[in-house]
Amino acid sequence: MAEALSLASSLVALAGFAFQTSKSLYQVIESFKTTKRTVRELRYELDSLTQALATLQQAAANNEDQLVALKLPLLRCGKICKEFEEVINSCISHSHGQRASFRDWAKLQYMGGDIENIRITLAGYKATINIALGGATFRQANVTANVLDEYRQMIAEATSDLQDHLQGINERVESLEQKGPVQDSDADLSVIMEEKESTEHPPLSREEKARLDIIKEERDSITQCLSICAEASDLTGKARTNVFEDVTSSDDSHQLVVSTIGDLISARHIITGARSMQWLGQMSDDTLQQLSRSQKNISREQEDLGV
């Protein structure tokens, strides 16, 4: 299925691919029933990733324009899950299919890293998906100041993790470059060297070129994730202002021009009549509800007194 998908595919198709492969990988890992910490953490990460992808699938059809930047991360996420499942199945075949006796988790390698590297990579994709979904919601609906602060914190943490991940890849590439040509080994499944033509090194073999394509795509994907985070951060930095102009209420009225979610308010030519009450500015939702209840009580008392 991955071979038939590309960046030209629809967002819905790519989200479906990533969802199915992550779910399949989760089921394979779950079937081992191992208590190893690194494997448990990867399983938990995959579970939360599939939940994020399920939410994305529901949102993709109606929000493709706002979520289109996720195409490359989704493609890479799906490929990683699919290819790592193939690595696991290959190890199972070497263990004569004995899942219960399979104990070589520490030897599993993909993208030049171990299971923890896989977990970190998938966590970065999950965070990016959630940030993109949050940005789509932020554009379409009002959110409270607390929610906005939590969203900013999520962006900051994801950005830091993605930068560390990218730096780790670059360090491994630099280390490999210093060693010269890399011998074939399971520990070096895809991390080779940056695409640099140099007379110091012999021409890349067909297998090495294929590996180079993988690492280039992963780098591009991580860079795209960082771009999504940067765009989301810029979005949260834009102060939203609710503009009210030429609002008039009659005598004996109650007029409120307020924001309960921390947005700024611009009010001009706000006029109210005689014996009226007027509130302008910021207030919490609880305060607004209390104010409403208080005014109802006052109105009842006035009715009882015949005012």
From TrEMBL:
Position of the signal peptide: 1-18
Cited Pfam families: PigL_N (PF17111)
Superkingdom of origin organism: Eukaryota
Coiled coil (UniProt feature): 39-66
InterPro entries: PigL_N
Full protein name: Azaphilone pigments biosynthesis cluster protein L N-terminal domain-containing protein
Alphabetic keyword roster: Coiled coil, Signal
Domain Azaphilone pigments biosynthesis cluster protein L N-terminal: 2-201
